[in-house]
Amino acid sequence: MSSVSLKGVVKHYDAKQPVIHGVDLDIADGEFVVFVGPSGCGKSTLLRMIAGLESISGGELRIGERVANEVAPAERGIAMVFQSYALYPHMTVYENMAFALKLAGHKPAEVQQMVERAAAILQLTPLLKRKPKELSGGQRQRVAIGRAIVRKPQVFLFDEPLSNLDASLRVQMRVEISRLHQELKTTMIYVTHDQVEAMTLGQRIVVFNGGRIEQVGTPLELYNSPANLFVAGFLGSPKMNFIPGEVLAAAPHYVAVQLAGGAIVEVAAQGCGGAAGDAQRGDAVTIGIRAEHVALRRAAVLEDQLLPPEDNLVDAAVGHVENLGDLSIVYAALPGVADMAAVKQPADGMQAAPGAAVRLHLPAARCMLFNTEGLAYPRAV
Ligand SMILES: Nc1ncnc2c1ncn2[C@@H]1O[C@H](COP(=O)(O)OP(=O)(O)OP(=O)(O)O)[C@@H](O)[C@H]1O
Q: What CATH number was assigned to the domain covering residues 239-370?
């Protein structure tokens, strides 16, 4: 097992703009870290630089205690699993897994013992005599993982290993990869563009955008306290609701924001200090709130005057509804706001048909606030 440390790591292809802009990251021995980000953000390039398949243009890569920038791929103690399995078609499962061990000069009895152990971990024992074409996609990916395990690497690198599998197999393989990490306790770095894989697999997630790290943290830190609009919008489905507004008043523990349609929403954010600076009256801001935190209320009626008033209610018109069985997602238009707001509504909760007038409750403690640069104001709760 080994730690992996990146200091100011840069990558240029040709003399063009860098595709990796000075990445600093420390991955602990035995940790499972997921690199996630949109297509082209540089996550595969960085993984390939750690593997030694791409040169490092600047900065320092350490694997364990050793600077590894110039170390040959085979000497780095790393095994990589690719999206495209890359199995030898003319060899059996056993031969595929034994190949690198034979090349490394292990004796036949040792090779047999190492392959059998890996096959048992991955439940491949009954398939050892088959050729890749006689296996399902999930089984082929298990062989590819088995081929990596037999070499007992210090670090495992996975490059979108589940992208070619159908949805139910992906869920099953996710569970198997988690189990594998618990069993082997080897450092693992896993690249994906799928935020569900990132949330479910990673002990820590690194969110990349345009060759830079946007934020590093545990899945729940990133989900509950995104540092900026990019991370807030990238994790979670449906995407977090973003509602533009203007600061009407800022107190130490809340900020009152007026939306384009006139409604006033109080947000439990620290009105001053923090990365986003001070919220000032007149500032343009964005409220962020997740669909599961918005509650649907019926449109205002006369009798409401007899009830205690509720804060942070905004008039809305239902656009369309997606019924998912256990819950429905109601999309509703707020006056003066371009994007519809999504509301996750339990199947036994209030239902609303397209065209219905409703109100949305945006609880102050659940609203996040972002400044014009997209940086989050610290939360007050
Ligand atoms: N061999 C290459 N030569 C020149 N540019 C490259 C090369 N490989 C990748 N790039 C560029 O580097 C950037 C990062 O690519 P990379 O494949 O690392 O992104 P990614 O985040 O893994 O995307 P995806 O999820 O689509 O694989 C992209 O702009 C890509 O076009």
A: 2.40.50.140
